[in-house]
Amino acid sequence: MIGHNGGPTLEKGTSWRKHCWGKARRDLLPVLPLQIIRQRVRRAEELGLDYKTYATVRATSGCDIVGFLFSSNALHLVKVSQKVPRERAEKLAAIRNGDILVAAHQPHDPLHIARRLEEDHAISLCDIREAPPFTDSWSAVRDRMRRTLSDTRLRGASVVLVGETAFEREWTAAGNFAAYLPSDRYFAKT
Predict the structure, then answer these.
(1) N or C: which end of the chain has fewer CB within 10 A?
(2) Source organism's superkingdom (predicted)?
(3) Single pTM value for the model
């Protein structure tokens, strides 16, 4: 009604209704067996994610994470002559049972980045492509992301995008990716 601030009701029985609502909510949440939880914790470790992030992405996308798409910005490649910082390369190299894709912003040569990662850090990429330019329309970005995924036979809902900028965050919807993680969160020291 007019003037009501949406605060708690002052009617009798509020605490009982709150208790019933809380119990109903808890009953809706799945109770996973301990073995499943352990498997998911191991899977999160294989991918270099903390369990909370892994479980959130898995729950929202409905799929297991099978790969990552890193932008060259997320790898801290600003200058063409630059190498991927050692800590970031080590985190990439530690990914097990997951595909690694890279979207290289201009003026980077995608093949040069792939060769450097392979030679310097023994990191094999599933695929590397040019990143969409800032001037591309949303539909052009969407088409580019879909082509990248279809060529690798990965589904967007099972790939996490790791980026550095707001422009890269927009790729998440364009490619129908499972989630977007800022690079500082993915590469944070654990």
Answers:
(1) N
(2) Bacteria
(3) 0.81
